[in-house]
Amino acid sequence: MDKSKRKAIIAGNWKMNKTPAEAKELLTAITPLVKDADCEVIACVPFVDLQTALEVAEGTNIKIGAENCHWEESGAFTGEISAKMLTSMGVEYVVLGHSERRQYFGETDETVNKRTKAALAAGLKPIVCVGELLWERECDITEEVIARQIKLDLFDVSKEDVKKTVIAYEPVWAIGTGKTATADQAEEVCAFIRATIAKLYDQKTADAVTIQYGGSMNDANADELLSKTNVDGGLIGGASLVAEKFAAIVKAASK
Ligand code: 13P
Asked: Is the C-beta atom of 215 inside 6 A of ligand 1?
């Protein structure tokens, strides 16, 4: 990838895994293995692990992210966490619109867009997830699905803000299934995402946006996926829970 144009970012998405004590153990194991990384390294962790993760990551090259945030600053939204609550702790990133939230918790492009704008307004960098279902790919509408998600999720996001936004292409059929998109499939859709952003904004803006691939990325396939021009990093689920595997992916992105 052209690192002069954009940042390579490897982010772990821990999902609903690890207690604070376990988070401390995992991050402590990851830290020395990624200290020389020539890419940005992020751990997106459950809300209850944030404080511990921030403490362990202090003074290291690991940035900490959350896995969601609400669009309102405060109020009667039981169970929700605002962007400001996260920035006030020192959290820098937030995963938004993950397919698991879309699939199991009624997340829509409208709410992803609201959360994205709120995150940016609060100074958080969103990692906005998009991706097609298997049957959508089989029906040959992957590009329509992705274009719709990109347009709706980024609606009303300024050019300056979109440069701070990371897009994660996560084909739903590849998440947690052990089925990885081929490097060519990942490149094809990541390039399409960049072209869509170029149409909405301009080429220079699109060239500055980091686009990750996610979906069964691991130490064995990271090299090939990350060798593609438009694949600027990865959003890693399962493999981010194993220090050596995560570190190997970071190493692949550092080349
Ligand atoms: P897996 O790497 O476990 O397939 O998960 C990918 C993912 O959903 C990252 O957000």
From this structure: yes
Catalytic residue, candidates 98, 100, 132, 187: 98
What mean pLDDT do residues 186-193 have?
Answer: 98
Residues linked to residue 10 through DSSP beta bridges, in sequence order: 41, 234
Range of the domain at 178: 9-253
Atom 5 (ligand 1) nearest CA: 237
- Block residue for tokens 């909405």: 200
170 catalytic, yes or no?
yes
In a domain, 141, yes or no: yes
CATH of the domain at 63: 3.20.20.70
| pLDDT tens digits, 118-168 | 999 999 999 999 999 999 999 999 999 999 999 999 999 999 999 999 999
Q: How many structural domains compose the chain?
A: 1
Q: Is 170 in the pocket of ligand 1 (CB under 6 A)?
A: yes
Q: Is the dihedral of CA 63, 74, 166, 161 positive or negative?
A: negative
- Asked whether residue 93 is domain-assigned, the answer is yes
How high is the mean pLDDT of the chain? 96
